[in-house]
Amino acid sequence: MSTSDAPGTLPVFAAPSAVEPGLDPAWVARVVELALDEDLGPAPGRDVTTQATVPASATGTADLVAREDGVVAGLVVVPEVLAQVARRLGLGEPAVTFHAQDGEAVAKGQVLAALSGPTQVLLIAERTLLNLASRASGVATAAAAWTRELAGTGAQVLDTRKTTPGLRALQKYAVRAGGGTNKRMGLYDVAMVKDNHVVAAGSVRAAIEAVRRAFPDVLVQVEADTTAQAVEALDAGADFLLLDNMPTPVLAETVAAVRAREGRDGVPAHVELEATGNLTLDRAREVAATGVDYLSVGALTHSAPILDLALDLRPA
């Protein structure tokens, strides 16, 4: 919820995010610590330029500004970056006033937050907080574009495991901020039977049964490249299907075949279907029209450009 002191003033948000579920604070702290170690050297580290040219006693205010239109995410990490830098330097922690929230559409030139405190802390924290927030905002912006394109179709955009190592939680959070949906978080929470697993196990049925014996608590998804493979996976007991790299006519045929079997012979009343592979924004509605539930798009996290954000120190 935001408030403002008078008409025309910037909104003020009590918290930088309303995205659920939020990021684990302990995870944020670990990521920020690693990022600062990269930039400053092992704790406490140093910034030879800032600490030589800016007195430790100097204070100032800096604005976090959007340099282009998009959807912002990652503001939630800003206070942690400032707090850790302040502790390393033995200086006071800057105050942050948020004028936007994660998940909000922002415009070029919009002030997202104002940071006030020791100038050394502001300048040393700058690159780390921009790296994290810019990357997250780029993912959120990409997810929002897919979400808009799929509006009214009944299908949702999903992310994948094609994330930057170490930043998966942030990037999947950013997908949620952009209106997208998270698939499995890792290899531990959903079984995904792919062609190599089928080869190793001997058959689709053997692979599914092996998973059921070893991990009876998890759902089992099976990858299918053809309608016949999709039907075979259903008959073998798959919970839901990943329809990979199918041309639109084949995808529509496969969806129809699956829907015709729902509720019969042990098949669930509704089998969730996920289209993936060779998906582009201009094909989104065409693919959704086949009746799939999800479109999974690795590019949300592996190819989204950053959203250009800047930290501008106000003149004294």
UniProtKB/TrEMBL annotation:
Pfam families: QRPTase_C, QRPTase_N. It is an enzyme of class 2 (transferase). GO terms for biological process: NAD+ biosynthetic process; quinolinate catabolic process. Pathway: Cofactor biosynthesis; NAD(+) biosynthesis; nicotinate D-ribonucleotide from quinolinate: step 1/1. Residues 139-312 form the Quinolinate phosphoribosyl transferase C-terminal domain. Its EC number is 2.4.2.19. It catalyses: nicotinate beta-D-ribonucleotide + CO2 + diphosphate = quinolinate + 5-phospho-alpha-D-ribose 1-diphosphate + 2 H(+). GO terms for molecular function: nicotinate-nucleotide diphosphorylase (carboxylating) activity. GO terms for cellular component: cytoplasm. Residues 47-137 form the Quinolinate phosphoribosyl transferase N-terminal domain. It comes from the Bacteria. Keywords: Glycosyltransferase, Pyridine nucleotide biosynthesis, Transferase. Involved in the catabolism of quinolinic acid (QA). Belongs to the NadC/ModD family. This is Nicotinate-nucleotide pyrophosphorylase [carboxylating]. It comes from Antribacter soli.
